[in-house]
């Protein structure tokens, strides 16, 4: 980014951890009968969330990744979701949980869910840590949501601003200072 900014904490690491614990209980109940749950992380933003989430899920799981990108380094969605890396494994007849960091316009996660649905999984659910409903352009809601947030530019816990700040342990909001 060519503008100077600071990051103000919006959701603490502790609050995120507590929310993940609660969500995990619901997910375990939903998939209690599974022989194996395929947990799919959407790269790159979900890498921190999926790491914390799967460690709370004492279920038989498998981890896979799919890379979808719509923003690149831009601040606005291109509305065109590109699959840059597909899943390693087949999901037909399987239980699948798609893990995403944030739903904004909704293009990314709805596109991925439609794509995976066409592969005929037994059960397909999605979870997003953050949801910005005020920005939605397609009619879509994840099955589980960590936090609903206002229309702020957020970073951290996997989420980037032009590829930076993904390693911030909390969710912060960007405040430009120039
Ligand atoms: C970001 C974010 C979500 C998506 C949400 O990904 O991680 O995947 O945008 O926006 P949407 O609901 O408007 O589609 P990005 O394309 O920046 O790729 P990244 O995960 O590699 O940062
Ligand atoms: Mn993403
Ligand atoms: Mg991004």
UniProtKB/TrEMBL annotation:
Q: Which pathway, metabolic or otherwise, does it act in?
A: Purine metabolism; IMP biosynthesis via salvage pathway; IMP from hypoxanthine: step 1/1
Top-rank taxon, per record: Bacteria
Query: What EC number(s) would the UniProt record show?
Result: 2.4.2.8
Q: Which UniProt keywords apply?
A: Cytoplasm, Glycosyltransferase, Magnesium, Metal-binding, Nucleotide-binding, Purine salvage, Transferase
- Recorded protein name is Hypoxanthine phosphoribosyltransferase
Essential cofactor(s): Mg(2+)
Give the signal peptide as a residue range, or say none if absent: none
Phosphoribosyltransferase domain span: 13-161
Q: What is its main location?
A: cytoplasm
Q: Which organism is it from?
A: Seohaeicola zhoushanensis
Check the record and name the PANTHER family matching this protein: HYPOXANTHINE PHOSPHORIBOSYLTRANSFERASE, HYPOXANTHINE-GUANINE PHOSPHORIBOSYLTRANSFERASE
């Amino acid at each position: 980014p060519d503008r100077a900014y600071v990051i103000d904490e919006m959701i603490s690491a502790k609050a995120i951890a507590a929310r993940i614990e609660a969500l995990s209980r619901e997910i375990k109940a939903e998939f209690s009968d599974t022989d194996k749950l395929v947990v799919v992380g959407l790269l790159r933003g979900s890498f921190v969330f999926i790491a914390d989430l799967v460690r709370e899920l004492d279920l038989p799981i498998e981890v896979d990744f799919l890379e979808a990108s719509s923003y690149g380094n831009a601040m606005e969605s291109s509305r065109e979701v590109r699959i840059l890396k597909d899943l390693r494994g087949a999901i037909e007849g399987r239980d699948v949980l798609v893990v995403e960091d944030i739903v904004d316009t909704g293009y990314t996660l709805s596109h991925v869910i439609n794509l995976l649905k066409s592969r005929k999984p037994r059960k397909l659910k999605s979870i997003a840590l953050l949801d910005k409903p005020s920005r939605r352009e397609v009619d879509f809601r994840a099955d589980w949501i960590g936090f609903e947030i206002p229309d702020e530019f957020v970073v951290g816990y996997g989420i980037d601003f032009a590829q930076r700040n993904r390693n911030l342990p909390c969710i912060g909001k960007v405040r430009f200072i120039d």
